[in-house]
Specification:
five-stranded parallel beta sheet; 7 helices; alpha/beta; five-stranded antiparallel beta sheet; 15 strands; single chain; about 250 residues
Length: about 250
């Protein structure tokens, strides 16, 4: 197995040492080619080593991790943010981050992120551009809740329902998570990741849909057995997105 060439960007020496140790001990398929303590060092190292994988802290002293990403044109690496701050998760996803790990980084989450990176890199090496509708969703997403943020694998969301002007997630383990944001906000955040608004009150995950029943509007059956109506107003958009999703699946 060809090792993934990785750069660690971390302005705290202790944080650098901790991540290095976990990668060396628990992720033998990763080769660390550079360690950078500042954003400027990171930019220079990325241009020099052309890594497969970038472990990127957000607060770097001289700049932010987002500034580092903006400085690199046409990046060819996958980005995993490693940070003590959970409030930047949405911004990280908008910057096409593969994953967002909050310190102290858990070994199983690190291994999962590395495995996802390898899968993405192999896919890009053997395929064309990523699909528009069914592009892989980020491994974790920071969902805003009343006490802060809850980090979940996006593909564990079966559907979301609007209740009292906020969205409620319904998960594969049949648990529910009540957000502090609206369903429209959630629809925007999960655009291009296999989610579709089928009704004013429902946003579904195509990957969790088991059946579509055609009639005047139609309805879908989700993996948990839930039947959800497709409104007549949204039927055309639903069918167009379904066709794209099937073509990219």
């Amino acid at each position: 197995m060809t090792p993934l060439r990785a750069i660690i960007v971390e302005d705290e020496p202790s944080g650098m040492e901790n991540l290095r140790w976990k990668l060396q001990k628990h992720c033998p398929g990763v080769e660390i080619v550079a360690e950078c303590l500042s954003g400027q060092e990171a930019i220079a190292a990325i241009r020099t080593y052309l890594p497969d994988l970038l472990f990127l802290d957000i607060m770097l002293g001289d700049m932010t991790g987002f500034d580092v990403l903006k400085a690199i044109k046409h990046p060819s690496y996958e980005v995993i943010f490693t940070t003590s701050y959970d409030e930047y998760a949405i911004q990280a996803i908008k910057n096409n981050a593969l994953d967002y790990l909050v310190k102290p980084v858990e070994v199983d989450e690190l291994q999962e992120a590395v495995a996802k990176a390898r899968s993405e890199i192999l896919q890009h090496a053997g395929a064309g551009p990523s699909p528009v509708v069914a592009s892989p969703a980020p491994a974790r997403f920071g969902f805003p809740i009343s006490t802060g943020m809850q980090f979940l694998d996006v593909q564990d969301v079966v559907y979301a329902k609007a209740e009292d002007n906020v969205a409620v997630l319904h998960l594969t383990d049949r648990k529910e998570v009540r957000l502090t944001k609206t369903l429209s906000w959630l629809e925007e955040q999960l655009a291009n990741h296999g989610f579709c608004r089928v009704h004013n009150s429902y946003l579904i995950n195509f990957n969790q849909m088991t059946e579509y029943i055609r009639n005047e509007g139609g309805y879908v059956i989700m993996s948990d057995g839930k039947a959800i109506s497709v409104s007549r107003r949204r039927k055309d958009d639903f069918l167009n997105n379904l066709e794209k999703w099937e073509g990219n699946g």
